[in-house]
Amino acid sequence: MLRNHRMGTRLLLLLMFAVFIAGVIQAQAVIPGVTGTSFNLAAREGYLSTGDGNSFYAWGFAIDNEWMQYPGPTIIVNQNDAVTITLTNDLPAWAGNVSILFPGLSVQASGGQAGQLTREAPPDGATTVTYTFTATRPGTFLYHGGTRPGLQMEMGLVGAIIVRPAGFNPAAPRAYDDPVSDYDSAYDHEYLFLLSAMDSRIHDLLEFKKDLTALDEVNYLSDYFPNYYFINGRTSPDVFSEPFVEWLPHQPYNSLPRMHPGERLLMRVLNGGLKRHPFHHHGNHARVIAKQGQLLASMPGVGADLSYEVFTIESVPGETVDAIFQWTGEKIGWDIYGDPNHPDYAHDCIDNDMDGYDDVTHEWCADHGKPFPVVLPEKQNLAFGAFYSGSPFLGTMGTLPPGEGGLNPNSGYAYMWHSHDEKELTNFGLFPGGILTMLIIEPPGVPIP
Amino acid sequence: MNRERQYLRLFLVMVVAGLGLFAAGTDSVLAVQKNIQLSSGDGYIVMADGRPMYIFGFSDISGIVDPQDALAAGQLAANFPAPTIVVDEGDEFYLTLYNVGMLIRPDLFDPHTVHWHGFPQAAPIFDGLPESGISIGMGPQPLTYYYNVIEPGTYMYHCHVEATEHMQMGMLGNLYVRPAQNRLADGTMLGSHEHDNPDYDPDPAQDDPTVGDKYAYNDSDGSTLYDVDFALQMTAFDDEFHDASESAQPLPFYQMRDTYPMLNGRGYPDTANPAPLAAPEENGYQVSQPVSSLVTAEQGQKVLLRISNLGVVHQYTLTTNLGVPMKVVGFCARLYRGPTGTDLYYDTNSVTLSGGESIDVIIDTTDVPPGTYFLYTTNLNFLSNGQEDFGGMMTEIVITAP
């Protein structure tokens, strides 16, 4: 729908540019969250911002005296920890009771009032419910509202729990407690992808009516028809901003995965909404090693022998998936660093450990020096992506027409990671937006925090 | 008929490929070079209820050398689905893309791309993602993509420019890669299975991968052996979106719904028509729906279905009334097997795919009496063509006596 030449590209650029540059430098490779064994959560109201400039009313979990956030604080604990989570309900009285469910964890609840599924906190801002569990096994888990769960998840009461395996070593991290000799869950970088959707009609209705029975007059939940789609509580392009930016006070988490060739990136994909989101990751297959916090193993101690490779991670409501993504450019058929005999692209491929790759850069040495296979069209016949470096070669910045490119300062390789229900690449009917982020494979040597 | 057309196209590709045969650099394995040339633009198809539909799409203009001739050949020639691409593991595949512009929407200047969905170890320059690379504008200079084809399996391809719009509008197609195992020497033992390859030749250009035993993947044990294969792509259109595009109105992204669910670009009963559908008046009588979804086999044959979903709104479940299970042997263009060799195959009566997923199932028809059966979505409300409450995502499976 380009009425003017490359208007879409410029729109994308305008939307992203101001917020991106800082983000690409300081994005965190460690998943931000709260750590410890005791956590005070409160359900509170607030407003969510979306990439189209809209905002709407929502509920969320808050930690201590902070503002509510969407998703709720990512709770990071260690295997075998005795974890205590207390909940108070600061929502207005008309919102009713709130509780928390922890699918996949064995939880004891006390205090508050008896509810259908668990103990509940009435909206008095004082009564506390205490949930305790022992983190007996590592993995990725969800927590979410447990009183009218469909409505409470829709309103934003959802978050992630990460249980680190016993003996977790941050210098050599693993997601699961498979044998030390087995590296199925070892990773260099980990990123959270909590996928969700919202139907802002529900939020607007409750904001103005201040009455849950207003939902009985409409079919908004039974005929669910969302208009916003989120990664970690933000729509695109807001996902590219830094975490904890002041202009998104209720949406502290971002999504901007980065890695180097040859590294292992752990994708923790959670579905915290009411519909499924097929999450397609450009670049390469990923190996699904666990679902619902369970390593895909035929028996303990053998590693993820039932794992399998996908190019789209099927994320269904309430489910968590852990997958390992790698990229080297192996067998691509040409030298991804350019002609090594050309002074601008001079580089070696030294493989002393005989694994086929350069020992430092992970270049696939069999392709070293192979020429680029095609002649690219002249620039006036092309449209350029905002994440294009101007060169087909990794780490090389090429010349681009004024106003093109610019969102890829290290000239990495960029890959879209997005919902393959392409309808979900929109913010209330505006493309691009929704569940859409970019993986940046940075050239060797570029620091990634 | 569909198979014959596909093989004809493959034959043409192979002729071109044969001219370009060469040994790749220092590799000891011979590579076959293949080429295809596509145009991208707009056009029309006819839905199963008789309604014309404006689309964006690709068409095959292979062999046309002169750029102006290529542009002319691609005008209003969009197919749905896009031409099926079949290549073999070990091929060096060059795909040349022309952008012929939108005749019905001269106000649009959209570039286009080809995204080989699921291509392993992709580089942005050939990924077809406009945000991270390049896309081709209208005019006589094409963009050529290069793929070193190293992994067999069932993929798919589509344009990725303004993906929600261009995919809803129809720039989607089947793409699969046959495994190198097809070309093993005659008599090679794969577990207890003896490979049959009467036309074996160490030069892959001389060894037709469809002669002799055929497999879905490099399984090492013959467990993905099949006799006949069919690529079936689930898609769906929203007629209001297409009408808005045709009449240059704001596009209803938010309201998008699936109103015309299809297999290979047709609703039932057109799916079971083995011939190309009649050329629509709206595009100047160019055939735009050549791909049938009719599945045919002799009783006793093993049928491989290469199923993908490129719908942009819904997941779909497919089942059959054959009375025998489908065996899932591949998922997302990979043999469905764990890293230590444990088979993850399973028998099922239905498979469910979301957008951007593919699956390979093998149906053993030994116990299926000859007759006509159905492959259909169990999302029964989608057995419809627009307002017509019968049709949609369904096709026929015809089993004949051996």
What key attributes describe this structure?
heterodimer, A: 449 residues, seven-stranded mixed β-sheet, five-stranded mixed β-sheet, B: 402 residues, mainly beta, Immunoglobulin-like, disordered N terminus
Order of helices and strands of chain A: HEEEEEEEEEEEHEEHEEEEEEEEEEEE
Residue fraction in strands of chain A: 25-35%
Characterize the overall form of chain A. globular
At the third CATH level, what is the topology name of the largest domain in chain B? Immunoglobulin-like
User: How many β-strand stretches of chain B?
Assistant: 27
The oligomerization state is: heterodimer
Instruction: Please outline the major beta sheet of chain A.
Output: 7 strands, mixed
The assigned structural class of chain A equals mainly beta
Mean of pLDDT of chain B: 93
Instruction: Give the overall silhouette of chain B.
Output: globular
- Radius of gyration of chain A equals 23 Å
Number of beta strands of chain A: 25
Q: Helical content of chain B, roughly?
A: under 10%
Show unreliable segments of chain A: 2-28
Give the distance, in angstroms, between the N- and C-terminal Cα atoms of chain A. Answer: 38 Å
Q: How many domains of chain B?
A: 2
Rounded average pLDDT of chain A: 93
Describe the 3D structure.
- The complex is a heterodimer of chains A (about 450) and B (about 400).
- Chain A is mostly beta strands and about 450 residues long.
- Chain A has helices at about 5-25, 150-155, 200-210, and strands at about 35, 40-50, 55-65, 75-80, 80-90, 100, 105-110, 115, 120, 130-135, 140-145, 160-165, 190-200, 230, 260, 265-270, 275-280, 285-290, 295, 310, 310-315, 320-325, 380-385, 415-420, 435-440.
- In chain A, strand 18 and strand 19 form a beta hairpin.
- Chain B has about 400 residues and is mainly beta.
- Chain B folds into two domains: about 1-180, Sandwich (Immunoglobulin-like), CATH 2.60.40; about 225-400, Cupredoxins -  blue copper proteins (Immunoglobulin-like, Sandwich), CATH 2.60.40.
- In chain B, a hairpin with a 5-residue loop joins strand 3 and strand 4.
- Residues about 1-30 of chain B have low confidence and may be disordered.
- The chains are: A mainly beta (about 450), B mainly beta (about 400).
